[in-house]
Design goal:
about 475 residues, alpha/beta, Aldehyde Dehydrogenase, Chain A, domain 1, Aldehyde Dehydrogenase, Chain A, domain 2, seven-stranded mixed beta sheet, six-stranded mixed beta sheet, about 35% helix, Ald_DH_C, EC 1.2.1.3, Ald_DH/histidinol_DH, aldehyde dehydrogenase (NAD(+))
Length: about 475
């Protein structure tokens, strides 16, 4: 397959005006995939925003049925080309193909879901109420919206950002991560073939500098950012210092998984081993702090250890259908995770499984299970974004709620128990935006996704996401003049 590396602006693939490029390596073997990924310069960003602004004038008043038909055609095309998309995403970020196929499918699902909402966001009316006025609220699109994605779920992120935006009549400029640009660039030809008019969807590549240009752009009405707390903070500042654009932030997490003594042990082990390790735990919602009730701790931790030891053999080539664990996204991320593990060992934290560096080629990290890290240790407090799970025990429900909430993050959580009253009681007290009972937390198109505290604000996915791409207008009509 020829790999597209150019920018997609106004329905055309174009090279970067600056000629700057970035290389992409396959993290499974460090082979160069391409050194030609074009970096969007200020001029390119301005062109993309101008194209989106021009397209907004007509796209916002294109009949909803027409917008929906184009979105549905695009979803069909995504499905027809799912294998190429999955291969590209697997090649540049190392996610096993069995999961990148799901990512590609998730983007199609988002476009179908939001296509069904193009004609369902209606206004409200209020009768005269002694004030001589008939009143109404209408909802209007914001204008040119931008999205910046992290590398760990490009296709999902694109679906969550672009689909609700264009469904509501906005136009879009998206920037993928410099660490996983290929599957995003590929989408341009499908956007055009689906019939999106020029400028409605523009796809840029580049790093933090290109992201900063979007965040500070005077022509962008809203930016939906997914990434680290540090970069999210910069985006918010840039938005405030430019045109006060709307901002939503999907940031990191250090989520808790709580296993009570009455939990189904086998199920809790599965979700805290295999399911925690999906995508090498390079998932914002990964519950990387596990709390186990002390009365079941010896048996549970023994079972967990066995499950983790089994999974250390699951490492393989991401392109292989059977591979469950691929490499980390790149050298820097593998080194970062290995540094956390080495630091934990140097601090004397007990290593139950893993702990040693991989010798094989590529940027693989050994899944590592750590017992009883101190409450102030880095592995306990900081988001590692890799296959490292820390385990502690607890005595009471009150204590574990306090432990779980003792973090600046608030993205996700899991509660394992067979007592539904306890599950809901604990769920109501956890300071998180997404939570599952008796299962690892995965996104659903029906529910919203987003964080409490420093995991960000605003919501993607579900019905709630459309509110992020409209603004209300109140209109009053005097009944007697
Ligand atoms: P990152 O912050 O390094 O990069 C994210 C994106 O921001 C990239 O596209 C990057 O080019 C861009 N960027 C960097 N500096 C910027 C700046 N100053 N202005 C504008 N854009 C800038 O994060 P990452 O390493 O790609 O992703 C990992 C992080 O993302 C983790 O913290 C993870 O938890 C988080 N994440 C959150 C969610 C969620 O839905 N909450 C989903 C996926 C990842």
């Amino acid at each position: 397959m020829t790999i597209e590396t150019r920018l997609f602006i106004n329905n055309e693939y174009v090279p970067s005006s600056s000629g700057e490029t970035i290389p992409v390596f396959n993290p499974a073997n460090d082979n160069l995939v391409t050194d030609q990924v074009q970096v969007a310069s200020k001029e390119d960003v301005d062109k993309a925003v101008a194209a989106a602004a021009a397209a907004f004038k007509t796209w916002r008043c294109t009949p909803s049925a027409e917008r929906a038909a184009i979105m549905l055609k695009y979803a069909d095309l995504l499905e027809q080309h799912a294998e190429e998309i999955a291969q590209l995403e697997s090649t540049d970020m190392g996610m096993p193909i069995m999961f990148t196929r799901m990512m590609a499918a998730s983007q199609a699902a988002s476009f179908r879901y939001y296509a069904g909402l193009t004609d369902k966001v209606h206004g409200e009316t209020f009768n005269e109420d002694g004030d001589g006025l008939f009143k109404m609220i209408t909802y209007e699109p914001l204008g040119v919206c931008a999205g910046i994605s992290a590398w760990n779920g490009t296709q999902l992120s694109i679906g969550w950002k672009i689909a609700p935006a264009v469904a509501m009549g906005n136009t879009f400029v998206h920037k993928s991560s410099e660490r996983s640009p290929l599957s995003a660039i590929y989408l341009g030809k499908l956007v055009k073939e689906a019939g999106f008019p020029p400028g409605v969807i523009n796809l840029l590549s580049g790093g933090g500098a290109t992201g900063a240009l979007l965040a500070s752009h005077m022509g962008i009405a809203k930016i939906a950012f997914t990434g680290s707390k540090a970069a999210g903070r910069k985006v918010q500042v840039a938005a405030a210092q430019s045109n006060l654009k709307h901002v939503t932030l999907e940031l990191g997490g250090k989520s808790a998984s709580i296993v009570f003594e009455d939990a189904n042990i086998e199920n809790a082990i599965k979700h805290n081993s295999q399911n925690f390790l999906i995508n090498n735990s390079q998932a914002c919602s990964a519950a990387s702090r596990l709390f186990v009730h002390e009365s079941i701790a010896p048996t549970f931790i023994d079972g967990l250890k066995q499950a983790w030891m089994g999974l250390t053999h699951a490492l393989g080539e991401p392109a292989d259908d059977k591979t469950f664990l691929g490499p980390m996204v790149d050298k820097a991320q593998a080194e970062r995770v290995n540094e956390y593990i080495a630091g934990a060992k140097a601090d004397g934290i007990e290593v139950l499984v893993g702990g040693e560096e991989q010798k094989r080629a590529g940027h693989y990290v050994t899944p590592t299970l750590l017992l009883n890290p101190g409450l102030e240790s880095r592995v306990y407090k900081e988001e590692i974004f890799g296959p490292v799970l820390v385990v502690r025990t607890f005595k009471t429900e009150e204590e574990v709620i306090e432990l779980a909430n003792d973090t600046s993050y608030g993205l996700s959580g899991i509660v394992f128990t067979s007592d539904i009253a306890r599950a809901l009681r604990v769920a109501s007290k956890l300071e998180v935006g997404t939570l599952s009972i008796n299962s690892a937390h995965w996104p659903s198109k029906f529910t919203s996704w987003g964080g409490f505290k420093q995991s960000g604000y605003g919501r993607e996915s579900g019905l709630e996401a459309v509110k992020e791409y409209v603004q209300s207008k109140s209109i009053h009509v005097a009944l007697k003049v």
